[in-house]
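User: Thanks for the earlier help. One more: Flagella basal body P-ring formation protein FlgA. Can you show the sequence and predicted structure together?

Assistant: Of course, both are below.
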Amino acid sequence: MLLALLLLVALGTPLAAQPKASCTPVAARALVRGQTLTADDISMVDAKGGSALCALRSALVGSQTRRMIAAGEPLREPAVAPPNVVAANTPVAVVYRDTGIEVRLKGVAQNAAPLGGRVTVHVDVRRRLDGIVVAPGVVEVK
């Protein structure tokens, strides 16, 4: 017991009790709709208003803006989202899998979507299927 107390005093505040560095990604300059973010487009600001480096910065690189963003405005969803891997009105492969059977069709995506996003696909004049983007140009239906 005494040894544990001495260790706590020697080490100072436990890691769980230390305040976490809080930093927010903000736009380094005005950004237009549809722009793909680079490291130069992102500044990190900590809770006290100073500059900070954060792991969030690298996670945002490659994301796309969904609307205009002013300089200094926080970068968060829905204004910033992952890039689309399926574009509207482009050909896609439609895949259906069930217990060892795989069926593939060709279709046309009706909307743009990022990886994991929902997309509607027209497979012929009268049929449409809803699915999830699993890879660039590939939609899986259930």
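User: Great, one quick takeaway?

Assistant: Residues 66 and 78 are 7 Å apart (CA to CA).
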